[in-house]
Amino acid sequence: MKPASFEYVRPQTLEEALTLLTRHGDEAKVIAGGQSLVPMMNFRVAQPALLIDINGLKELDYHRVDGQTLRIGALARHAALRESPLIRQVCPLMSEAYHFVAHGTVRNRGTLCGNLCHADPASEMPAVMLACGATLVIRNAEGQREVAAADFFQGLYATAVYPDDLLVEVRIPIPASRVGYAFEEVSIRKGDFAMTLVATLLEVRSGRISSAAIAYAGVSDRAIRLDAVEKRLLGQAPSEKLFADVAREAAGALEVNEDIHASSEYRRDLIRTLTPRALAQAAERATAAV
Ligand SMILES: Cc1cc2nc3c(=O)[nH]c(=O)nc-3n(C[C@H](O)[C@H](O)[C@H](O)COP(=O)(O)OP(=O)(O)OC[C@H]3O[C@@H](n4cnc5c(N)ncnc54)[C@H](O)[C@@H]3O)c2cc1C
Q1: For atom 36 of ligand 1, which residue has the closest CA?
Q2: Of 114, 108, 105, 106, nearest in space to 31 by CA
Q3: I need a surface site. Which of 85, 89, 247, 280 has the fewest CB within 10 A?
Q4: For residues 129-145, b (16+ Cβ closer than 10 Å) or e, as one string?
Q5: Residue 129 · residue 92 · CB < 8 Å
Q6: pLDDT of residue 289
Q7: What is the pTM of this model?
Q8: Ligand 1 atom closest to Cα of residue 117
Q9: Quick one: which atom of ligand 1 is closest to the CA of 161?
Q10: Which CATH number fits domain 61-173: 3.30.465.10, 3.30.70.20, 3.30.950.10, 1.10.357.10?
């Protein structure tokens, strides 16, 4: 199918983009890489009257470290982030997860921020944002607000970004001390969205787990982090039994969907399999000699 007809505008400044968003509200859609929006328009799931193309806002194409924070702008492409030595150094969980995201042609155009705004429930980066405790910086003509990743994903393709908003930056805290990471995913083919995925961060001090993050996607209507299950790990020594117990708890605690790709029982089985694998690798990385 072809998209319904629409108007197109390419602002050259952030202020101009925000003014257009205020003026046109939910009649308009921001287009960044177009890798989710254009297919939706072709299927006529989305029929915006106006496309506001933000690709002219070159000042939003960056990723850099500022103090203890990794900052990623709205036009940073998947491909640049995936290949970035800086990201590998300060947020290796993201680098690892990027090996599961889409294909080269999609990654060359698609942006991290567009991906987060689209909020596909089986997408990798929302889970990475949750595990890392990211903050999302949203602007509109009225001002700026910061939203924790935990509050950003609000349901199926639903986020804290409203029609007159632009997600301008992602901020990821860089841990002060050594943290182990791991990302595990099962999908039908390489580069597909996840059937189930788990993203983990673990800190181990004096042989005990001192902080833990476990985030899942592909299992329910949004990426999700399980605080109660994470707490179970704190103060414990890493072990196969502990990780298997925690995985069983996670599989029981999550509301798990079923669809044409997998039954909910199969997804629970994946949770029970992938969680201990990810936790064991994260623990090993947390304790391995530097
Ligand atoms: C064949 C194929 C395979 C894919 N496989 C995967 C995969 O395995 N894993 C995965 O995670 N993704 C996958 N994707 C999706 C891909 O990651 C997209 O690039 C991403 O979801 C959207 O980013 P974009 O910049 O292209 O956003 P767009 O398509 O331009 O926009 C997506 C949505 O976000 C809004 N938006 C974009 N930027 C902003 C902003 N800064 N502020 C406010 N709203 C904004 C748009 O209005 C639109 O609603 C795949 C896509 C394709 C076509």
Answers
A1: 114
A2: 114
A3: 85
A4: bbbbbbbbbbbbeeeee
A5: no
A6: 52
A7: 0.97
A8: 34
A9: 43
A10: 3.30.465.10
